[in-house]
Protein: ABC1 atypical kinase-like domain-containing protein
Organism: Symbiodinium pilosum
Amino acid sequence: MKRFDANFEADRHVLVPRVYASTEAVLVMGLAEGTSLSKWVKTENDVKKRDDVHALLVDMMAKMGMQDRFMHGDLHPGNLFIKIEEDGAPT
Protein backbone atom coordinates (compact mmCIF):
# COMPACT_ATOMS: atom_id res chain seq x y z
CA MET A 1 0.00 0.00 0.00
CA LYS A 2 2.92 2.33 0.64
CA ARG A 3 4.07 1.96 -2.96
CA PHE A 4 0.55 2.44 -4.32
CA ASP A 5 0.15 5.54 -2.15
CA ALA A 6 3.51 6.92 -3.30
CA ASN A 7 2.63 6.32 -6.96
CA PHE A 8 -0.51 8.45 -6.62
CA GLU A 9 0.84 11.00 -4.15
CA ALA A 10 0.69 13.85 -6.69
CA ASP A 11 -2.84 12.98 -7.89
CA ARG A 12 -5.46 14.82 -5.84
CA HIS A 13 -8.18 12.58 -7.27
CA VAL A 14 -6.78 9.30 -5.90
CA LEU A 15 -6.69 9.12 -2.11
CA VAL A 16 -5.28 6.16 -0.20
CA PRO A 17 -6.34 5.61 3.42
CA ARG A 18 -3.57 5.51 6.00
CA VAL A 19 -2.18 2.09 6.90
CA TYR A 20 -2.13 1.58 10.67
CA ALA A 21 -0.84 -1.97 10.91
CA SER A 22 -0.24 -4.95 8.70
CA THR A 23 0.89 -8.55 8.73
CA GLU A 24 0.85 -11.14 5.95
CA ALA A 25 -2.75 -11.97 6.89
CA VAL A 26 -4.21 -8.63 8.08
CA LEU A 27 -4.20 -5.04 6.84
CA VAL A 28 -5.67 -2.32 9.08
CA MET A 29 -6.39 0.94 7.28
CA GLY A 30 -8.12 4.22 8.02
CA LEU A 31 -11.69 4.88 6.99
CA ALA A 32 -12.20 5.94 3.37
CA GLU A 33 -14.66 8.75 2.77
CA GLY A 34 -17.27 8.40 0.06
CA THR A 35 -19.53 5.71 -1.32
CA SER A 36 -18.32 2.33 -2.51
CA LEU A 37 -18.23 2.10 -6.29
CA SER A 38 -20.56 -0.91 -6.12
CA LYS A 39 -23.22 1.21 -4.40
CA TRP A 40 -22.44 4.43 -6.30
CA VAL A 41 -23.07 2.93 -9.76
CA LYS A 42 -26.49 1.71 -8.62
CA THR A 43 -27.60 5.13 -7.35
CA GLU A 44 -25.84 7.76 -9.50
CA ASN A 45 -27.72 8.66 -12.68
CA ASP A 46 -25.90 11.88 -13.63
CA VAL A 47 -24.19 11.05 -16.95
CA LYS A 48 -21.44 13.69 -16.51
CA LYS A 49 -20.50 12.36 -13.06
CA ARG A 50 -20.51 8.79 -14.34
CA ASP A 51 -18.31 9.79 -17.30
CA ASP A 52 -15.91 11.65 -14.98
CA VAL A 53 -15.59 8.65 -12.66
CA HIS A 54 -15.11 6.35 -15.64
CA ALA A 55 -12.31 8.57 -16.96
CA LEU A 56 -10.66 8.68 -13.53
CA LEU A 57 -10.73 4.88 -13.23
CA VAL A 58 -9.35 4.38 -16.75
CA ASP A 59 -6.56 6.90 -16.09
CA MET A 60 -5.77 5.23 -12.78
CA MET A 61 -5.54 1.76 -14.36
CA ALA A 62 -3.43 3.03 -17.27
CA LYS A 63 -1.02 4.77 -14.89
CA MET A 64 -0.66 1.63 -12.78
CA GLY A 65 -0.04 -0.65 -15.74
CA MET A 66 1.90 1.51 -18.16
CA GLN A 67 3.74 4.07 -16.06
CA ASP A 68 4.19 2.57 -12.59
CA ARG A 69 4.28 -1.09 -13.68
CA PHE A 70 2.68 -1.88 -10.33
CA MET A 71 -0.92 -3.02 -10.04
CA HIS A 72 -3.10 -2.91 -6.93
CA GLY A 73 -3.80 -6.56 -6.12
CA ASP A 74 -7.32 -6.21 -4.72
CA LEU A 75 -9.19 -3.63 -6.79
CA HIS A 76 -12.91 -4.31 -6.90
CA PRO A 77 -16.02 -2.11 -6.58
CA GLY A 78 -16.21 -2.70 -2.83
CA ASN A 79 -12.64 -1.41 -2.35
CA LEU A 80 -13.06 1.75 -4.42
CA PHE A 81 -14.87 4.71 -2.91
CA ILE A 82 -16.25 7.64 -4.87
CA LYS A 83 -16.60 11.13 -3.45
CA ILE A 84 -17.71 14.09 -5.56
CA GLU A 85 -15.88 17.23 -4.44
CA GLU A 86 -17.45 20.70 -4.25
CA ASP A 87 -15.95 21.56 -7.64
CA GLY A 88 -17.67 18.50 -9.15
CA ALA A 89 -14.47 16.48 -9.53
CA PRO A 90 -14.52 12.86 -8.39
CA THR A 91 -12.01 11.48 -5.88
Observations:
- The chain is about 40% helix and 10% strand.
